[in-house]
Amino acid sequence: MRILKNLGQALRGLQLNKANTFLMTLGIMIGIASLTVIVAIGEGTKSKVLNRIANMGFGPESFSVYSGAGRLFFGRNRNITSMTLQDVDDIRAMPGVAIVVPRQRKRMRIINKKEFTTTRVYGVSPEWQPARQWRVVDGEFFNDMDMDRKRKVIVLGNTPAQKIFGEMDPLGKKIRVGQVFFEVIGLLETKGLTESGYDPDDRALIPLTTAMSRLFRQTHLHSIKVVSTNSEAVRETMEGVTQVLRRNHGLSPLADDDFRFVTPEGIMQWVTESEQALNRMLLLISTVSLLVGGVVIMNILLVSIRERIREIGVRRCFGARRADITQQFLFESVLVSLLGGVMGSSLGWILSSSLNHFNLLPAKITWDPFVLAFGFSMIVGLVFGIHPARKAASLSPDETIR
Amino acid sequence: MKISKIIEIDSIIKTYKNEGLETNVLKGVSISVDEGDYVSIVGPSGSGKSTLMTILGCLNQATGGTYLLDGEEVGKLRDSELSRIRNEKIGFVFQAFHLLPGVSAFDNVMMPLIYCDKTPADAKERVKQVLIRVGLEHRMSHTPGQLSGGEQQRVTIARSLINDPKIILADEPTGNLDSKNGAEIMSVFDHLNAEGRTIIIITHDPIISEHARRILTLRDGQIVSDEINENFKKSRAGIARVAVK
Ligand SMILES: Nc1ncnc2c1ncn2[C@@H]1O[C@H](COP(=O)(O)OP(=O)(O)OP(=O)(O)O)[C@@H](O)[C@H]1O
Ligand SMILES: [Mg+2]
User: How many helices (H) and strands (E) does chain A have?
Assistant: First the structure.
């Protein structure tokens, strides 16, 4: 087959002009590498968020309301103090509401003798456990009595427990949280790291009342978790909650909410939206870099044709048709572009893996970018190779051997 | 044996047009060459020798006149058909060798076979044979940069022979060589002609043209003389002696 022989000649050409070949692959390589990394980060972020949702203990019938305007986990104002126990009582009184869990939260250092670590300390009501359905494997969760008496008791997640107790049994031991001593009364069941590196076990729970008066020394809440009696009532309940909170916080009809809802649906929607935005950015970045790569290939090929004008002429003298020359140079540009694609994919794969490995950014490697890389580099090679290839073929043989 | 005409050109005109500037290079050249003949074309620089060769070699179309190559009217052929004719019927040898740089002698000789419609099954064997023929069996994997000028020119002769063409067209084949290497190359041509191959050599060196049976002189785009070389028989006898020895 003549076309295969031209392909062979193209391979030889690339081999013989290594410097040019290398330069031509660079642009494509960078384009494809960035494409691969961006896709991997996108996928990684998505799976991280999805894992996060899975680990928040959200059922379709529950939602949370966080203090401060904003969206989801991204509050705009951290100094809002308007959410209080009054809100909790009023929500609890609403029809269709099954469980309400008020929460306070702070990252704090916890200390056992010489061992210490920093973890998320939550002040919650005892309903946290049924609402979250998270088992206590050792000891027990605090109860209403602990709440009423503002007892200094603490339930540890596995991560802080391991860090400050190691192999020892933490139950009954006293640990210091900030300046206050707590007795460990329970250990939460271990959930384990999610695929994306989020650690749900990195937490400690204390009675809300204790948190308010003895540890955090504040009355306002961080968030409230609400479980409806059934999932159909969720929308209605959220509307009711909005009304209650706006009234309680004294917001005028024109003022924005000073709280925000976090629902599994909302998170999903956010993931989809940000994914779309990311995809658009990705498309732009990769298009631009691939275009640049393509132009680089075209220019180097044009220069290389000038350098190889003798070669073209001699081939023509010995029977190469225009089509043979076109094919040879088109193959060169496509091959070089594919080579750039392969190198870019590999580089992207290495970069994504190391981003993930060193916990810099979540990255998840999927097949799509590699398929895209193949397709894109092929197209770039064809589109930007055709002009130089035809130019090479159009040279008249007698002038090329002078 | 009936001698057939391999080349018949009649009133060939070649005019180059560059940005309105017309250069009349060939002004009505008529030549016919017998199959198996040994022709040299001589003439001063700029007289149109190389231009004539590009037309004879189907590298370029004449502006006027007719060209019958091996009985085929070449003037009206499409580019791809001219490519096929070059591939099958003509072997070129250039002053500047024009070998593919970085490519082994073997692969350089193989190159024209890429452009055959059917690559012969014994391609590799054929390449070896022609390389042996020009005395380069020990240099097959050398690249042009690793070969002397004379060796390079022998590679180009092997390349011109690979498709077993009817005509060898050589433009100043010894122009880049010293006299010793030049003489060796000319003896290769002499042998090829003795075997019956048509050879046309362009040169301005009388020592080279002396090898041919027939000497055409071109001046200012026209044939001004067409002579039979009296010394041809004598040199032929020399070849016969070498061949016997
Ligand atoms: N493409 C072209 N356009 C315009 N003029 C050309 C072109 N090619 C050749 N010529 C002109 O045609 C004339 C003959 O050129 P050619 O190369 O055939 O000469 P030559 O007999 O081979 O000379 P030399 O012995 O120096 O090689 C020259 O005057 C040259 O300038
Ligand atoms: Mg010349």
Answer: 13, 12
Higher pLDDT, residue A366 or B122:
B122
Nearest CA to ligand 1 atom 27: B45
Is the pTM value of this prediction over 0.80?
no
CB-based contacts of A327, cutoff 8 Å, min separation 6: A3, A6, A7, A10, A389
Segments of chain B assigned E as strands: 5-18, 21-34, 38-42, 64-69, 72-73, 90-94, 167-171, 198-202, 214-219, 222-228
- Which residue is it, tokens 């024009």? B98
Contacts of A225 (CB under 8 A, 6+ apart): A62, A63, A64, A99, A100, A101, A103, A128, A131, A132
3-class state of residue A284 by DSSP:
helix
> Does any ligand 1 atom lie closer than 6 A to the CB of residue B206?
no
φ/ψ of A66, rounded to 5, equals -105, 150
**CA A170/CA A38 separation, integer angstroms:** 44
Nearest-angstrom CA–CA distance, B12 and B22 = 16
- B223 burial via Cβ count (<10 Å: 0-12, 13-18, 19+): middle
Question: What span, in angstroms and rounded, lies between the C-alpha atoms of A102 and A104?
Answer: 7
Å from CA of A16 to ligand 2 middle: 30
Residues in chain B within 8 Å Cβ distance of A324:
83, 114-115
Q: What is the distance between the alpha carbons of residues B123 and A5, in angstroms, rounded to a whole number?
A: 14
Contacts of A331 (CB under 8 A, 6+ apart): A6, A7, A9, A10, A11
Reduce the secondary structure of A206-264 to three states and give it as a string: EEHHHHHHHHCCCCCCCEEEEEECCHHHHHHHHHHHHHHHHHHCCCCCCCCCCEEEECH
3-state secondary structure of A58: coil
Residue with tokens 């990769």: A286
Residue with tokens 């001063």: B44
Task: For the sheet with B5-18, list strands across it.
Answer: B21-34, B5-18, B64-69, B72-73
- Each residue's pLDDT tens digit, A151-179: 999 999 999 999 999 889 999 999 999 99
Q: Does B22 touch chain A (CB under 8 A)?
A: no
Residue B47 CA: which ligand 1 atom is closest? 21
CA distances A126 to A123, A210, A219, A223, A229, Å, are 10, 12, 18, 15, 18
Q: Is B79 on the interface with A (CB under 8 A)?
A: yes
Report CA dihedral (A333, A335, A337, A339) to the nearest 10 degrees. Answer: -150
pLDDT band at B245 (very low <50, low <70, confident <90, very high): very low
What span, in angstroms and rounded, lies between the C-alpha atoms of A210 and A204? 13
Residue A45 has pLDDT above 80, yes or no: no
**CATH superfamily, domain at B37-48+85-244:** P-loop containing nucleotide triphosphate hydrolases (3.40.50.300)
How many angstroms is it from A200 CA to the middle of ligand 2?
Answer: 84
Closest residue to atom 12 of ligand 1, CA basis: B25
**Angle between the N-to-C axes of helices A309-317 and A264-307, in degrees from 0 to 180, rounded to the nearest 10:** 70
| Residues A350, A257: Cα–Cα separation, whole Å | 45
Nearest CA in chain A to B102: A16
- Look at the block and give the residue holding tokens 């043209």: B209
- pLDDT value of residue A195: 59
Cα A182 from Cα A210, distance rounded (Å):
10
Q: How far is CA B44 from CA A243, B48, B49, B219, in A?
A: 106, 9, 9, 7
Question: Nearest CA of chain A to the CA of B224: how many Å?
Answer: 25
Q: From the CB of B217, is ligand 1 less than 6 Å away?
A: no
